[in-house]
Amino acid sequence: MKQNLPQSYFSRIMRAVIEFDLISDGDKILVGLSGGKDSLFLTYALAVMRRHLSLKYDLAAITLDPMFTDDFNSAPLVEFCQELEVPFYTEKVDIAGIIDSNNGKDPCFCCSFFRRGAINRFAVKNNFNKIAYAHHHDDAVETFFMGLLHSGQLKTFMPKTYLDRTDLTIIRPLIYFREYELLESYKLHGQPPLPSPCPLNGKTKRQEVKDLISQLGKTNPALYDHLASGMRAGAVGELWPAPLTRDQMLDKHTSFWNPKK
Question: Bridge-partner residues for 168, per DSSP?
């Protein structure tokens, strides 16, 4: 494998690393490697970059078998990581069984929750201090829009998050990449993305929001940029005040009918 990272890609990652203090000298970083296009590129990019940066960090990758199928095969990822000189680990997590025992309720939440938990436990056990996920800019914007649509909250995930219970830090070095820029990133390293084993792939709430943004963007080309601006701190203009509690409403109601002299 010829290992090369174009300057435009290198600069994009370094922008995130510098702006959000993602990598420090001596870090032990564990990459969540699903086998999809994004995590393959992230593993490759971090492996190439450590050869050129003055700060030194250890790098390894982990792939979870969610047990959705009986033919999970990590062999291509083993070979991919060997060529990059990145230690590779894999573990089984019966996410399929968990979803089934939950009668199929909130399958995406269950999958995400138990995946994160398994990776966190592995990282702590093996003395990693950071976990790198391959979320890109579209993921952040979609999460922001999903929060507004489904929970009425203005929030998204952060480029860097410290987990005080485990003393781990989550980093997302691809945060300044658009998804379309990563579609053919496998051509850099030669490993085609592996098919997703998820039985709901392409049928999730996230996919619905992704399609909605694309559809609305046809008549409002600035929509995506406006959503991206809206998820930045300081973007809030005027919002209604927070709703009053029941006791606060009762006090105001009482004072309304019995004003103080």
Answer: 163
DSSP codes, 148-210: HHHHS------SEEEETTTTEEEE-TTTT--GGGGTTTHHHH--PPPPP--TTTT-SHHHHHH
Q: Does 245 reside within a domain?
A: no
**CA angle, residues 179, 184, 185, in degrees to nearest 5:** 80
Tokens of 62: 């982990």
pLDDT exceeds cutoff 80 at 187: yes
CA angle 69, 72, 73 (to 5 degrees): 160
Instruction: Answer whether residue 144 shows pLDDT above 80.
Output: yes
Question: Do the domain assignments include residue 177?
Answer: yes
Closest CA relative to residue 88, chosen from 37, 35, 48: 35
CA distance 37 to 41: 6
Where residue 77 falls among pLDDT bands split at 50, 70, 90?
very high
Look up the CATH number of the domain holding residue 73.
3.40.50.620
What total number of domains does the chain contain? 1
Q: Is residue 155 part of a domain?
A: yes
Range of the domain at 204: 7-230
Q: Is residue 101 part of a domain?
A: yes
